Amino acid sequence: MNCIFGLRKSEFHFMHNISQYQDFFISYLKSQSINKEPKSLYEPIEYILGLGGKRMRPVLTLMASEVFDTDYKVALPAAMAVEVFHNFSLVHDDIMDDAPLRRGQETVHEKWNINTGILSGDAMLILAYQYFEQYEPTVFRDLAKLFSKTALEVCEGQQWDVDFEERNNVTIPEYLKMIEYKTAVLVAAAMKMGAIVAKTSEKEAELIYDFGLNLGLAFQLQDDFLDAFGDPETFGKQVGGDIIENKKTFLYIKALEFSNPEKASELRELFNLQLEDNTKKIETAKAIFIESGASKATQEAIEMYTYKAFETLDKMDINPEKKNILRKFGENLMGRKV
Q: What is the mean pLDDT of residues 110-134?
């Protein structure tokens, strides 16, 4: 057992900032060499983990441990498990979506092949579990239990996402359930893992889970919004990608709900098209999103879930300064451009 697990809670009342947590995590990630045989299994894993990204989920795990007065170092293996799992899901998502690029680089199945993508992804799921073995039995049990529940929910959310592509009658509650499972539960679990590692009370662990869940919902709705209305310079992905792929996002469902029959019919027809040049399609869809009030409703939903997360903070028995740090994090997320 690493000596850091013997650190007394009372020694850790301060918290670091987001970029420090990112640096701490990246240093740890780099120290975790997965340089094993066969290379064709492990090289794709090193490749995807090295592609960068904001590392938001592992940062939340480190942050949550320090919210509950425990040194972030104790939470590094759990944070690594979260990041490995998240990237496993991306490798398999990219295969399902036939995506050529991830974070501006070739996807694993494009760089290698589909079979390698499937197998390396499977190996990542197992590797994620192995990181929990660094904890004592009761902490290991709680982490593994939460992880199994979350991993299954992410699969369910992904399946709903696939199913919705074939349907024209997806409702707002169905859509919210899908993004909760596909995206928000992992954000929530990442935070609760920090609480579990810090051995805080079940009540506090549940509250920080709820905080993460609402923040995760706001984050995904923000992603939907930025996909249509983001700045191509800062967004990092193709603006209008969801429109091109005919994805029934919150914007789309709200636009159908708010539009007159002619406009709704036009939008439905638009979302049945597969075109070579999508410029006009994107422009028309965005105009309907704005005119119908769907873009405004989406921004209001983002705000609503962010404030719901803040209400959870008010119930938490933690240092007021730490509440402010979490609130600031939520506000930054709400105002993000990327």
A: 97
Residue that has been written with the tokens 């040049």 in this structure: 277
Contact 170, 253 (CB under 8 A): yes
Number of other residues whose CB lies within 10 A of the CB of residue 21: 23
Whole-number Å distance between alpha carbons of 21 and 331: 18
Quick one: average pLDDT of 51-57?
Answer: 89
Quick check: is 4 in a domain? no
Which of 132, 165, 197 is the endpoint of a domain?
Answer: 197
Q: Among 61, 202, 187, which residue's Cα sits nearest to residue 138?
A: 202
Model confidence, pTM? 0.91
Give the total residue count for the chain.
Answer: 338
- Cβ(176)–Cβ(224) under 8 Å? no
Q: Quick one: DSSP state of residue 3? A: G
Q: Are residues 111 and 158 in the same domain?
A: yes
Residue 155 falls within a domain, yes or no? yes
Cβ proximity of 300 and 272 under 8 Å: no
Exposure string for 217-253, b = 16+ CB within 10 A, e = fewer? bbbbbbbbbbbbbbeeeebebebbebbbeebbbbbbb
The reply to whether 209 and 275 lie within a common domain is yes
In the chain, the number of structural domains is 2
The model's pLDDT over 305-320, given as tens digits with 9 standing for 90+, comes to 999 999 999 999 999 9
pLDDT score for 13: 61
| SS3 state at 269 | helix
Q: Say whether pLDDT at 6 is over 70.
A: no
Count the helices and strands in the chain (H runs, E runs): 17, 2
The whole domain housing 207 covers: 201-338
What is residue 231's DSSP assignment?
A: -
Please state the rounded mean pLDDT for residues 131-151.
98
| Tens-digit pLDDT profile for residues 8-42 | 444 446 789 889 999 999 999 999 988 789 999 99
